[in-house]
């Protein structure tokens, strides 16, 4: 693992819970996978573009967190950082399974 002292941010990883309603529809709620975890911000990039008449923004961000066995994190999860929600677009395990790298996107119908 890289220097754990560089993990200065906290993120909350959540999973979607689908609940069937009596009317036949479903409701999605989000449940934490575990309490907030320490993370190291790797990248952050933003883009603004016009969609129709509106200016919309998109933010891509990457974090490294400590690896844990059986994490099960995938694109069906999301994470919260600094009050913003990011849909997970990719999860990469480090070569020696010391870290997980989470790449997320917010904006443009995401997060």
Brief descriptors of the model:
single chain, 111 residues, mainly beta, Thrombin, subunit H, six-stranded antiparallel barrel, globular
Describe this structure in words.
With 111 residues, the chain is an all-beta fold. The protein has a single domain (4-107), classed as Thrombin, subunit H (Beta Barrel). 0% of the residues lie in helices and 64% in strands. The protein has no helices and seven strands. It has strands spanning 9-20, 26-32, 37-51, 54-66, 77-81, 84-93, 99-107. A six-stranded antiparallel beta barrel has the order 1-3-4-7-6-5. Strand 6 and strand 7 (99-107) form a beta hairpin. The chain is globular. The model has no long low-confidence stretch (mean pLDDT 86).
* Average of pLDDT: 86
Number of strands: 7
Low-confidence stretches: none
The structural class is mainly beta
Let me know the CATH homologous superfamily. Bacteriophage SPP1 head-tail adaptor protein
- Supply the CATH architecture: Beta Barrel
Number of domains: 1
CATH class term? Mainly Beta
> What is the share of helical residues?
under 10%
Taking the sheet with the most strands, its summary is: 6 strands, antiparallel, barrel
Taken in chain order, the helices and strands follow as EEEEEEE
- Main sheet: strand order: 1-3-4-7-6-5
CATH topology: Thrombin, subunit H
Number of helices: 0
Beta-strand percent range:
over 45%
Molecular shape: globular
């Amino acid at each position: 693992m890289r220097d754990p002292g560089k993990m200065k941010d906290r993120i909350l990883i959540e999973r979607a819970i689908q609940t069937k309603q009596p009317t036949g529809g479903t409701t999605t709620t989000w449940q934490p996978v575990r309490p907030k975890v320490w993370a190291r911000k790797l990248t952050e990039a933003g883009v603004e573009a016009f969609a129709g008449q509106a200016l919309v923004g998109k933010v891509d961000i990457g974090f490294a967190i400590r690896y844990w066995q059986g994490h099960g994190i995938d694109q069906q999860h999301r994470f919260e950082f600094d009050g913003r929600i990011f849909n997970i677009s990719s999860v990469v395990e480090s070569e020696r399974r010391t870290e997980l790298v989470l790449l997320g996107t917010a904006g443009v119908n995401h997060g």
